[in-house]
Each structure stands twice: as C-alpha cells, then as structure tokens.
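tokens incoming
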C-alpha cells in the first residue's frame, strides 16, 4: 500500500487536459500504430472495473481488408437508412457529417460482451443483467483515455445492425456486440467535439436533480 503513487496537482491538471481534449475521431492518418501499441492498450483495458470482476469484454481485431470493407459498406448503408428518420433540414445537416473512419483507421476493434461469463460467478448482476454491458463500456472508456494519452484517437461507431456485424465477424456464440471502434492517429486535435463544430449538438451541463 505504501508504494501507491501520489497524484499531485500537476498530474490532476494533465488529467483534466486529457478529459477535455479527448475526442471521438472520424478523420485518421493512415500511418500504423507503432509495434506493441495495440497490445499495450488492450492490456490497459483489463484494469477497468467490472461487475463481479467478471471482465466480460471480448475483443475482435479486424485484420483482413475484406472484413474491413464489408463493415464499412454495412455502416455506410446503415447511415443512409438512419437519414430517413430526420426532417428535411436535419437530414441535410446529417448528410454532411462524417460518422466513421472505418476505411482509414489503421486499427479496427469490435468489442463484444460475453452475456454469460463464468468469471464473477454472477455476482452483482442478479437483478441487472445489463451491468455486464456497462462493464464493457467502462473498459472501452479506459481504452479511449489510455489511447489518447499516447496521442492515439478512437472513434466509436454505432450506426450498424449488431446482428449483421456479429455474423460478419463470426465470433463465438453468446458474444453480443457493444461497440465497433476505429483507432489511429487523428488528423487534427481540438477541444471542441466534431458534432459541436458542425452545429449538430453542443455539450450541455449534466442534468442533476436534488432529492
Ligand atoms: C455509445 C456511443 C456511440 C457513438 N456512436 C457514434 C457513431 O456511430 N458515429 C460517430 O461519428 N460518433 C459516434 N459517437 C461519438 C459521439 O458523437 C461523440 O462522443 C460526441 O459527439 C462527443 O464528442 P467527443 O467524444 O469528441 O467529446 C458515439 C459515442 C458513444 C459514447
């Protein structure tokens, strides 16, 4: 215990910068991550909290260009289909957004949740099965921040049909898709989210009620 590091003001200031400058990235440089970087980042995910310590996240690394293109084509069609839900003015703004970097990002990961992991012995999820998926999201956010600390951007892609993506990736039964992620060096860095810069949606204060 006595070896635990102390976090000082300088560290906290840097951490605040990390939170403020982390972005969801859709515009990637094409240069690959240095050797070992992907593996190191995936190891950091293992430090995330999880219900019952079950660590239900499962990771598929997409390494073939055929699968990459199939995913990109699927997401492109899901993006077009989702446009139908907007009125004309919103639809025009939506059409201008870039919503994934699946063709450019050097590293693609599909993150799944094992819906019945042996680890954890069911602790903590008897009444809230969804805590398994929440756990996977904590690991994704850990990855997101760890990557950004190395200058590596991450883009979360969710405009897709999870069953289609699961079938495309041919993963073990019982894994449900939580996220499709693009990782690589960002084309630019900014402290303003892309959707805010595009006039789509700005950040708002957290909604808090007092009881
Ligand atoms: C669960 C989740 C799903 C998301 N899906 C998409 C997506 O499909 N396409 C996209 O461009 N951004 C996606 N995003 C990124 C958000 O648009 C982004 O986080 C938000 O606009 C705030 O910007 P920032 O992350 O740069 O702060 C997703 C983010 C989360 C957390």
């Amino acid at each position: 215990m006595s070896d635990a590091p102390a976090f000082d003001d300088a560290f906290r200031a840097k951490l605040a910068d990390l939170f403020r400058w982390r972005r969801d990235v859709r515009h990637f440089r094409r240069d690959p991550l240095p050797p070992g970087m992907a593996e190191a980042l995936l190891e950091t995910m293992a430090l995330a909290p999880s219900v019952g310590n079950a660590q239900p996240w499962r990771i598929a690394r997409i390494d073939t260009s055929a699968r990459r293109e199939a995913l990109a084509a699927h997401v492109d069609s899901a993006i077009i289909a989702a446009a139908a839900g907007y009125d004309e003015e919103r639809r025009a703004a939506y059409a201008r957004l870039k919503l994934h970097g699946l063709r450019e990002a050097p590293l693609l990961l599909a993150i799944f949740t094992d819906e019945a992991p042996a680890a954890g012995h069911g602790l903590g999820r008897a009444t809230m099965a969804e805590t398994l998926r929440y756990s996977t999201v904590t690991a994704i956010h850990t990855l997101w921040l760890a990557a950004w600390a190395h200058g590596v951007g991450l883009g979360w892609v969710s405009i897709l049909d999870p069953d289609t993506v699961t079938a495309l990736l041919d993963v073990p039964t019982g894994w449900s898709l939580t996220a499709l992620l693009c990782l690589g060096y960002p084309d630019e860095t900014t402290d303003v989210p892309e959707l805010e810069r595009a006039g789509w949606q700005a950040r708002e204060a957290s909604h808090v009620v007092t009881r």
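note: Residues 167 and 211 are 46 Å apart (CA to CA).
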